[in-house]
Design a protein that fits this description.
single chain, 236 residues, mainly alpha, 63% helix, elongated
Length: 236
């Protein structure tokens, strides 16, 4: 598509190919490292289910992708929680209460910057980051693709979806920046607990925002498509 076309991706496609069924394959680690400059030993390659833009822009395809994108966002939130909990492990003393469940959400109130935490276990940090990386990389690639090539969307949807798309762009790029920060925090043997926890919390909060964008985009597009079908059926 030409760049003169609308520079907006109807959120269902740009939001994510990760919301679609994906084929997962082992990647060339060296090549991936050159592209991302991150210390990832093994990476997944998430491939688009289809490559035809017209197919992707069908209402059923877009709404299905928006529905499924919640799984990808949920994975980002979960790994952020895991990173936060790893960075805030405290020594357990005899007689202290056991945790009956692991938290599914995190907040600033859960972080005590004056408390002494156990050193984060690097193997777990790497595991959580490696789980996050291919998802965020794909989101970033989709954004760059839209900026470069553009997409054509129905005029009645474009104006309404644009604010959501801009928020999506900003949040994904913020998470990607936080991933770079996490990589720098893996190396040191001490003094990283608080920075790690704060960065994980930043990722979590952005993922929460992404979920709100996803939901609002789904509601908006679903209503618009129903309205378009009704208008078409009436012959107006």
């Amino acid at each position: 598509m030409k760049t003169s076309q609308v520079m907006t991706l109807l959120l269902a496609e740009a939001l994510l190919y990760t919301g679609q069924n994906v084929a997962i394959a082992a990647g060339d680690a060296a090549a991936q490292l050159k592209q991302t400059n991150r210390a990832t030993e093994h990476q997944m390659i998430l491939r688009r289910r289809t490559s035809d833009d017209k197919q992707q822009l069908l209402p059923d395809e877009m709404l299905s992708d928006l529905r499924d994108t919640r799984l990808s966002i949920g994975q980002v939130k979960q790994q952020a929680v895991n990173l936060f909990l790893e960075a805030t492990r405290a020594v357990v003393r005899p007689g202290e209460s056991a945790l009956h469940f692991s938290p599914t959400s995190i907040s600033q109130e859960m972080l005590n910057e004056k408390k002494t935490y156990l050193a984060p276990r690097k193997d777990w940090l790497i595991f959580y980051i490696n789980t996050l990386e291919p998802i965020i990389q794909l989101l970033t690639d989709d954004i760059n693709d839209v900026d470069t090539n553009g997409r054509s969307v129905p005029p009645n949807i474009e104006a309404k979806i644009n604010p959501l798309w801009k928020t999506w762009q900003a949040d994904v790029r913020a998470i990607n920046k936080s991933l770079d920060q996490l990589q720098e925090l893996i190396g040191p043997d001490s003094g990283t607990n608080i920075p790690l926890a704060k960065t994980a919390l930043a990722i979590y909060n952005k993922a929460v925002e992404l979920e709100k964008v996803r939901y609002n985009a789904y509601e908006l597009m679903s209503k618009e498509y129903v309205s378009m079908e009704q208008h078409k059926a009436s012959g107006n």
